[in-house]
Write a structure and sequence with these properties.
This protein is mostly helical. It contains eleven helices and no strands.
Length: 243
């Protein structure tokens, strides 16, 4: 089991993050527990600032794992978004657990191994989604060419029912999958308060520096929701109204 200096828990977050950066440059035998303490504060104590420090510390490493898990023919438009999803998966499965983190992960290397598994699984999930999308597109194209897609009143009624079901699915997905505070705030301000990106920056200048950042956050969430929920239906308007 990893041992840590008795005073480690009393240090400031800045000191812990700085110690983790230095620790990452040394061998495992020289670790003093700074990186593990950073993860502990982020996951056990749910400190957002500690989680942000974890993301900054390991962003490049997770990106490397994402690229390593890719195949040459994978259609991945944004590896950074996949890295973000990997962090989200890691957070959802470990944050807020009753058992101490050290009971499951004896050292930071075990935590990083699990984070790597999250990155690989995220890439595999994206590959499966892309394959389903390709197959669906092929079926739709085949049906269209055969003249099988001529909508009538029954089709329109079914479409309205499907849209209502989609709205419910999207709201459930947002509640379960969007844990990043900045993403939650952007969704709330955009779709509940009906604010534009510029208005969001004006209301929350301490959180967002410019409208471009807000738009990027908003589109990042929408892309994840489309991949998870739409399955090629193309109903982006329903998704935007629901989020």
């Amino acid at each position: 089991m990893q041992t840590r200096p008795s005073e480690l828990g009393q240090l400031s977050l800045e000191a812990i993050a700085a110690g983790c950066r230095g620790e990452a440059q040394r061998s495992r035998s020289e670790e003093l527990g700074y990186c593990f303490e950073l993860f502990r504060r982020a996951l056990e104590q749910a400190e957002q600032a500690a989680w942000n420090a974890v993301a900054r510390q390991y962003q490049r490493l997770v990106l490397e794992w994402v690229y390593a898990a890719r195949r040459s023919n994978d259609e991945i438009a944004d590896p950074e978004e996949l890295a973000h999803e990997a962090f989200e998966r890691f957070w959802r499965t470990l944050a807020g657990r009753c058992n101490p983190l050290v009971a499951r992960f004896p050292h930071v290397g075990a935590l990083l191994k699990y984070l790597q598994q999250c990155a690989v699984t995220t890439v595999l999930d994206q590959r499966r989604r892309a394959l389903r999308q390709t197959r669906l597109n092929a079926r739709v194209e085949s049906a269209t060419q055969a003249g099988a897609l001529s909508p009538g009143p029954e089709d329109e009624a079914v479409a309205r029912i499907d849209q209502a079901a989609l709205l419910a699915r999207v709201r459930t997905w947002v509640a379960a999958e969007v844990s990043d505070p900045d993403e939650q705030l952007v969704l709330q301000a955009s779709y509940t308060d009906d604010l534009s990106p510029i208005e969001i920056v004006a209301r929350y200048p301490e959180r967002f520096t410019d409208a471009a950042t807000v738009r990027q956050i908003k589109e990042r969430v929408l892309r994840r929701a489309r991949r998870a929920l739409l399955d090629g239906t193309g109903d982006h308007e329903a998704l935007s109204n629901a989020v």
